[in-house]
Amino acid sequence: MTNNRRRKTTAGIGNRRPYQRLTEAQKRNIVGEVNQGLIGIRAACRKYGLNRNTLRSWRVELSLLTPEETLPTELSPDMTDPQPNSTLSRQVKALTKALAQAQLKISGYQTMIEVAEDKLKIKIRKKSGTKRSNE
Questions:
Q1: Nearest alpha-carbon partner for 45 in 36, 54, 37, 32
Q2: pLDDT single digits (tens) 41-100
Q3: Segment 17-25 long-range contacts (CB within 8 Å, at least 24 positions apart)
Q4: Per the database entry, which stretches of residues form a coiled coil (predicted)?
């Protein structure tokens, strides 16, 4: 009988043995990621192979330090590459074009309502303060 069970691999810090201590810099980086909101507490525990209570105690311990000491030593990869200005300018142009089309559509609908009210002598627009009929 063959054993087809796969070992569950966890994304941790290197090939760290269980219960091996992490350096202060590694602790600061992990707590910094959680405090900045880049990763949740449970996700950080899964990623680094930690217990939630351990991570919470680190957060309390490191929150008592001065703000300069709690900053992570390295920037996350998301923060190093800002979005290029060309992409942002393209998005702004597309949104302004969509806004212009929506405003044109609104003015067209308003014109249609005015023409219908004049020709058919029917009040289409709702009067302010009117109540619904009970029919």
A1: 54
A2: 999 999 888 889 988 888 888 877 655 554 555 655 555 555 677 788 888 999 999 999
A3: 18/49, 25/73
A4: 85-119
Q: What is the pTM of this model?
A: 0.38
The two three-digit tokens of residue 12, written as one number = 């941790």
**Rounded to an integer, what distance in angstroms lies between the CA atom of residue 45 and that of residue 40?**
9
User: Angle at the Cα of 75 (from 69 to 77), degrees rounded to 5?
Assistant: 155
Residue with token string 């449970």: 42
* CA 12-18-22 angle, 5° bins: 65
Tell me, what amino acid is at 70?
T
Q: What is the token pair recorded at 2? A: 């063959």
Highest mean pLDDT out of 19-23, 38-42, 81-85: 38-42
CA distance 104 to 47: 51
Cα–Cα distance measured from residue 89 to residue 72, given in angstroms and rounded to the nearest whole number: 32
Spatial CA neighbour of 73 closest among 33, 28, 105:
28
Contact indicator for 58, 27 with CB cutoff of 8 Å: yes
Q: Tell me how far apart the alpha carbons of residues 98 and 37 are, in angstroms, rounded to a whole number.
A: 33
